[in-house]
């Protein structure tokens, strides 16, 4: 196993897939910082990969019960090893988020189980991108047409009423994200993420509440890098 990468100023160590495969980074850190779970709450990292989001939450928010869900058995094993490496008693479930409900429930994704769900869905749907030649990377980045709606449906199903969803996605996917959330979530808040102040947004951070009727909010953006290419003070603080 390769040397572990350091996150959160060294508080989190993470073994990752080989270079060329999909690897955790800034997206995972930003997602882990999106919701503040309370001690005793049950948090699910849905589509966890090597576990950066859920394990970061366990370190940042002691007392939270963390479940990591990953469909690739090899990545699930890596997430399990990373949990042990960081001293986190996380549950690891091998399950396909888009599988039929009975299969998901048999794996442990039962209805109304979690207080918080954090997720970084695949960014592309079939027919809208050119898949990577690396099979694992292609699987992490893409899913079937209309997959986002099915992914959000699973999020809603495993959250308790009033439970909170946090998600990161590409900025140009905002209309599809809002369409998938409609009728299932309210109190939706969107924060654009910009690589630099003068450039268009590259990501969106989305939070929402299951069953809420609260209005939509668009909040000030997060800018990752200043003119010198270094992290802005806020982005640097989030990474530490």
The name of the CATH architecture is 3-Layer(aba) Sandwich
What is the CATH first-level class name?
Alpha Beta
Order of helices and strands: EEHEHEHEHEEHEHEHEEEEH
Helicity, as a percent range: 25-40%
Specify the biggest β-sheet: 9 strands, mixed
Number of E-state strands: 13
- Cα radius of gyration in angstroms: 17 Å
Give the overall average pLDDT. 92
In CATH, the homologous superfamily goes by the name: Vaccinia Virus protein VP39
What would you call the structural class? Answer: alpha/beta
Task: Estimate nothing, just give the exact number of structural domains.
Answer: 1
Give the low-pLDDT segments.
Answer: none
Straight-line N-to-C gap:
25 Å
| Shape label | globular
CATH fold descriptor: Rossmann fold
Strand content bin: 25-35%
Count, helices? 8
What does this 3D model show about the protein?
The protein is globular. The strands form 3 sheets. Strands 3, 4, 5, 6, 9, 10, 11, 12 and 13 form a 9-stranded mixed beta sheet that branches. Strands 1-2 form a two-stranded antiparallel ribbon. Strands 7-8 form a two-stranded parallel sheet. The chain has a single domain, classed as 3-Layer(aba) Sandwich (Rossmann fold). Helices cover 29% and strands 28% of the residues. Helix 1 crosses helix 2 (52-60) and helix 6 (147-158) packs across helix 7 (174-181). The relative contact order is 0.13. The protein has 240 residues and is α/β, with parallel strands linked by helices. The chain has helices at 26-32, 52-60, 73-85, 101-107, 135-141, 147-158, 174-181, 233-239; strands spanning 5-7, 12-14, 42-46, 65-70, 91-94, 114-119, 124-125, 142-143, 159-170, 185-194, 201-210, 217-218, 222-223. The two termini are 25 Å apart.
């Amino acid at each position: 196993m390769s040397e572990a990468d350091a996150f959160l100023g060294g508080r989190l160590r993470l073994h990752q897939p080989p270079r060329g495969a999909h690897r955790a980074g800034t997206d995972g850190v930003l997602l882990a910082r999106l919701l503040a779970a309370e001690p005793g709450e049950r948090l699910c990292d849905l589509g966890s990969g090597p576990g950066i989001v859920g394990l970061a939450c366990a370190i940042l928010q002691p007392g939270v019960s963390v479940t990591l869900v990953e469909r690739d058995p090899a990545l699930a094993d890596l997430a399990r090893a990373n949990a042990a490496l960081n001293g986190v008693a996380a549950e690891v479930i091998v399950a396909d988020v888009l599988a039929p409900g009975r299969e998901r429930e048999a794996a442990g994704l039962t209805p109304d189980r979690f207080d918080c769900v954090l997720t970084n869905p695949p960014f592309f749907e079939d027919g809208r991108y050119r898949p990577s030649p690396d099979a694992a990377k292609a699987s992490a980045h893409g899913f079937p047409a209309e997959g986002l709606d099915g992914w959000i449906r699973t999020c809603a199903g495993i959250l308790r009423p009033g439970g909170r969803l946090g998600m990161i996605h590409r900025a140009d996917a905002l209309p599809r994200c809002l369409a998938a959330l409609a009728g299932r979530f309210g109190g939706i808040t969107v924060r654009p993420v910009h690589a630099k102040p003068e450039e268009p947004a590259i990501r969106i951070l989305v939070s929402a509440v299951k069953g809420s009727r609260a209005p939509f909010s668009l909040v000030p953006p997060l800018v990752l890098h200043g003119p010198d290419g270094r992290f802005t003070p806020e982005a640097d603080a989030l990474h530490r």
